[in-house]
């Protein structure tokens, strides 16, 4: 709903009505009302009327014909709004509340404009939405030289100084000069970013998306400090960070920003802010930023007890699952280590068995690559197992190229045929040629799958010695 025009009702406000036949009662009420001084009247009004639609009648603004036409053409104004606690933030049920939201509600009743919030999640996104025309206003941007190039800023309705936020055990910073050679975490396109780059080049900037990420970077030691408004900085509970001194007297004014493409909207907003009584603005600031009464609680999912209990239950369940999973992994690790120990013992026994055979023995895989061999093989070919393990006979310089290729072809042929081979042949080793008796047989896994070949040889001269 929106206001489309003024009513014909008088603007004198509410009054008590009494019967004509009872004039004494009317006189009594008038005498009682007349005894109230101005301060008491204003206090009553601020307590019961500020924030209600009836108060809008008391604030009238004179708009130019062009401004009225603009309102008719643009009855709904979209705001690029990032959650900025106490000024504009979402409650648990998704409603936007805060000081800026209340002021916009007053302006809406005075002008007939309807303000719709489009949520943004970073300063960069807000600026992009304003430049592209996706949004026509914003309520959280502070003035800077870069922003003034394409944005107009309305009259201020408050503000707060910029302050340093540092780790709780660090010394409080007194000025930007003390950050020379250190890291400052800031949301990208921060209002002070251009000033710091220009006047404090010795400061290293660590740019992130949000203030929460900037605080996280400081808490984790990725940065030495960040900068927030004093209002925001004091909202966080004490922990690993603390609020320091103000940043060289820099001030973050609370105002609305409007692209220069919409001068009518900028003028309407300024006229509406100027028409609002200062007492009303002070009352709103007291309501949101301080004063007597019940303290403000910024609602979020964790402040609702049911959701909090569910979150605790989920964390406990996750912790139990993690404990069980950790116990299972430790048990599997113990079993694996025992199996590894047994396997190593078996492998050691196999190696000792192979090394006890005086003739060269070798084992190759399905591609002809060497898996293992015995000491006699190493001694006969003057090579170490560690240098040739996993290599094919064609990949090492043990035989001539022609012989190596021939041996590799024979190995692959036996793997394909799965037939053993026993033969007498002449082989040229690096140390010289000799006639040998060679044997090669396939070997299989327990499931019957072919794993490779086992082979060896002994030279004919040694066989003759055994015969003698």
From TrEMBL:
Residues in Solute-binding protein family 3/N-terminal domain copies: 75-292
TM region(s), chain numbering: 308-329
CDD domains documented for this protein: PBP2_BvgS_D2
InterPro entries the record matches: BvgS-like_periplasmic2, PAS-like_dom_sf, PAS_4, Solute-binding_3/MltF_N
Domain of life: Bacteria
GO function terms (MF aspect): protein histidine kinase activity
UniProtKB keywords: Kinase, Membrane, Signal, Transferase, Transmembrane, Transmembrane helix
Catalytic activity, EC: 2.7.13.3
Top EC group: transferase
Tagged with keyword Transmembrane: yes
The family this protein is said to belong to: Belongs to the bacterial solute-binding protein 3 family.
Protein name: PAS
Species annotation: Pseudomonas fragi
């Amino acid at each position: 709903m929106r206001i489309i025009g003024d009513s014909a009702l008088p603007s004198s406000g509410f009054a008590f009505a009494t019967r004509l036949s009872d004039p004494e009662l009317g006189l009594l009420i008038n005498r009682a009302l007349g005894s109230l001084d101005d301060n008491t009247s204003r206090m009553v009004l601020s307590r019961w009327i500020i924030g209600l639609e009836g108060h809008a009648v008391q604030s009238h603004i004179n708009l130019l014909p062009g401004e009225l036409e603009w309102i008719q053409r643009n009855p709904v104004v979209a705001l690029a709004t990032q959650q900025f606690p106490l000024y504009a933030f979402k409650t648990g049920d998704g409603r936007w509340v805060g000081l800026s939201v209340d002021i916009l509600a007053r302006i809406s009743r005075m002008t007939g404009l309807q303000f719709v919030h489009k949520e943004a999640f970073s300063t960069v996104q807000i600026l992009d939405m304003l430049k592209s025309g996706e949004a026509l206003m914003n309520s959280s941007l502070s003035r800077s030289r870069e922003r003034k190039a394409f944005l107009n800023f309305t009259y201020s309705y408050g503000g707060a100084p910029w302050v340093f936020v540092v780790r709780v055990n660090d010394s409080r910073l007194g000025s930007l000069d003390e950050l020379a050679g250190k890291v400052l975490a800031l949301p990208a396109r921060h209002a002070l970013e251009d000033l710091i780059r220009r006047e404090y080049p010795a400061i290293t900037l660590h740019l992130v998306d949000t203030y929460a990420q900037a605080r996280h970077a400081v808490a984790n030691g990725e940065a030495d400090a960040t900068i927030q408004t004093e209002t925001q900085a004091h909202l966080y509970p004490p922990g690993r960070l603390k609020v320091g001194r103000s940043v060289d007297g820099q001030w973050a004014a609370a105002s609305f920003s409007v692209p220069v493409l919409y001068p009518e909207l900028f003028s309407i907003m300024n006229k509406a802010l100027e028409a609002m009584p200062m007492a009303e603005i002070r009352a709103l600031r007291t309501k949101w930023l301080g004063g007597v009464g019940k303290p403000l609680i910024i609602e979020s999912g964790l402040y609702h007890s049911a959701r909090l209990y569910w979150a605790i239950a989920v964390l406990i369940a996750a912790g139990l699952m993690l404990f069980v999973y950790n116990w299972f992994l430790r048990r599997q690790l113990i079993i694996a280590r025992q199996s590894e120990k047994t396997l190593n013992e078996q492998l050691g026994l196999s190696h000792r068995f192979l090394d006890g055979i005086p003739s060269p023995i070798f084992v190759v895989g399905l591609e002809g690559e060497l898996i293992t061999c015995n000491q006699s093989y190493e001694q006969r070919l003057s090579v170490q197992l560690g240098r040739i393990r996993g290599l094919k006979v064609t990949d090492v310089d043990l035989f001539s190229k022609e012989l190596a290729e021939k041996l590799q072809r024979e190995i692959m042929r036996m793997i394909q045929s799965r037939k053993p081979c026993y033969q007498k042949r002449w082989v040229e080793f690096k140390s010289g040629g000799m006639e040998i008796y060679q044997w090669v047989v396939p070997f299989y896994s327990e499931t019957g799958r072919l794993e490779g070949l086992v082979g060896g040889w002994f030279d004919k001269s040694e066989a003759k010695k055994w015969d003698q």
